[in-house]
Write the structure tokens for this entry.
Amino acid sequence: MFGARAARVVLNFALERRKRGLPIIQRMFDADAVDFSQPVALFPLPTVSLLPHALQPLHVFEPRYRSMVVDALGASLTGDFDHAAPIAMATFAGEGWRDSYAGAPALRPVVCVGRIVQHQRLPDGRHDIMLHGVARAKIVAMHEADDSRPYRMAELEPLEPLEMNRPRMLRVRRAMHALLARPRLERVIAARHVLDWFARDDVPTHAAIEVAGYALVRNAEDRYQLLAEPNAFRRAGIVRDAIVDLERLICMAERQHSADWPKGESWN
């Protein structure tokens, strides 16, 4: 999920938390959020699909991952997700996964651990879930699938955020706000939603950066670097570069003449 929809879904979820009297942003690395002493189920996909603080809807249809959802929810199938087990969204390493998808293709080392916050079981046994990103983590040991469990699990180690320099992060916040408020970017719906996050006093800067990256960074390798980078200041640099590239593309589109449009259409 990218763009305006991604930013809007995250914002709506945050506002719903506020209505329930909860902090608008869940504190990262809460001791109760993930029990890293236990293996965590892995749900690998070709590209990064989840970042901390973000939300990802998933349609789960493969039998092995249907089992994963049922096991994660346990007694929470009724809708109480507080005690549901976490699921780590992993990423395949390289292109070899296409030939070994049904088996155990290699995975990149950093994952995003998420918690199920919405669930609907469909009549045919498939599941629609919403996963909320909780923490970055590194795979330290694999538990491959076996006869009793058709999906892979892993022992994880949290990638703790480096201590942040508050004055420096405040400068980052102001710079990102100024960048997103530029006239060309105001036309981009996703950028407008992200700008709202940087304008909110109740959203920490590191969380606003996560949402910006989730909504605006499209390049697959850049998205993985966002996930793998524990330093919020460096993550802000990745997001900034993506936003500058987006503004540059808009500028190029504005300079086009209709005769230059591909197949007679504008790039806008």
